Fold:
Amino acid sequence: MAMKVEYINPFIESTYDLFSTMLGSQAVRGDVGVAKPTANPRDIMALIGLSGMARGMVALAFPVDTALKMVNRLLGTEIAIVDDTISDAIAEMVNIVAGGAKAKLSQQDRPPIDLSLPTVVRGSNFNVDYPSGTVWLEVPFNSDLGSFSLRVTFEMLEGKKA
Structure:
């Protein structure tokens, strides 16, 4: 699956939007690179699938501390452990990022992009095995709420025959 680097920009912009509008914070991105399948995906990862004119996945990966700070800021709570509330809020964050990028990518009379339900994986001892041939771009971010990363893989299906 080939992915053009410029397609990651709507996801980066949506991450900035999430921080500025929902979290009252600012995220600062690092350099975009290719995610290594063996890299530790952190403690909590939220994934959401894309289908329609784009096929692929979007993921946000967090250390526990960052996830707790982000959710507590979002909800105005002081939750100290990762529970269903944290998982649900992290799922909603990846939904917000993917939804914002979907809106940016679906402009210009193109067919829409559909989003799957988000999935959250918790725990420090799991592997994310990417299908062979896929390239995941990874964007590290830092913020006053902690570090996290955005991972995206997809291809645009424009001009392809069904």
In short: The longest strand covers residues 44-52.
